[in-house]
TrEMBL record:
PANTHER family: INOSITOL MONOPHOSPHATASE, INOSITOL-1-MONOPHOSPHATASE-RELATED. Its cofactor is Mg(2+). This is Inositol-1-monophosphatase. It catalyses: a myo-inositol phosphate + H2O = myo-inositol + phosphate. Keywords: Hydrolase, Magnesium, Metal-binding. Residues 1-26, 44-68 are annotated as: Disordered. CDD domains: IMPase (cd01639). The lineage of its organism: Bacteria, Bacillati, Actinomycetota, Actinomycetes, Pseudonocardiales. Transmembrane segments: none annotated. It comes from the Bacteria. Residues 58-68 have a biased composition (Polar residues). It comes from Pseudonocardia xinjiangensis. InterPro entries: IMPase, Inositol_monoP_metal-BS, Inositol_monophosphatase-like, Inositol_monophosphatase_CS. Belongs to the inositol monophosphatase superfamily. It is an enzyme of class 3 (hydrolase).
Amino acid sequence: MTSVDEARSTVPTETGTASADDPEGLRRIAERLVREAAEHLRGLPRPWDDDVAGGSPESFSTKSTPTDVVTASDQALENLIRERLGQLRPGDAVVGEEYGGTAGGSHTLWVVDPIDGTVNFLYGLPWYAVSVAAVRDGVSVAGAVIEPASGRLWSASAGGGATCDGRPLRVSAESDVSLSLLATGFSYRAERRVRQVAMVSGLLPLVRDVRRTGSAALDLCAVAAGWADAYLEHGCSWWDWAAGALIATEAGAVVRTPGPTGSTPPDDGLGADALFAATPGIAHELAALAREHGAASV
């Protein structure tokens, strides 16, 4: 009979069998988890099918503010991923958006966002994602992000590059900030949105345009794919960026994260909880412009 340790020691890949304990093996597990979650989501009731615009009151609840929603689907997907990790990686710890968790003494920690872009999902907009990352010593070593509406799957492993549906990713070659496309996002708290809008309004005349999709994970993947040249947002949580930031990094982006669990990085004038990713040709100049227009006070 195969032991638990033997069952978790290898994982199938496209080219054979890799150790499930190296970054590439963990990447394949993350891909498997997000695929299974996306498939499970297709069989769940969809909030936008309800008679009440924006979903029925029974289909969601709120968290930090009345605009910060969680749906039954968020909870169902996190439960599924936790269950599957218990089977595939017994002994590993899990931190998820809906049910929390701690690293404990586990060598590998899985950081899970069951639906990133829940408001989009609630309204029937297609820009939402499932994100899973494997973390060691506070650093993401593997991760995957899937967009259930399109089926597109991004993934990366530390030192192993980033892909979308198996195709290698590389950030754009843009070197002129005035021709760059900037992605951003806004807080659930109204008073903070005012400060974020002030910063973005200062940057808007200096770039090609600004996009706001509503999913940090997908924005980071867009930078990795060259669909956006940069992304800047304040207030994102670890699960929002744990996989996407690695994907952007492995695609060649300059990436600055707030630090795992919200720990404050060295002060660089962007604000303690700023999440920033940009193609190298504009990263330094765009960060300087963000500071000039109040990033530290957002």
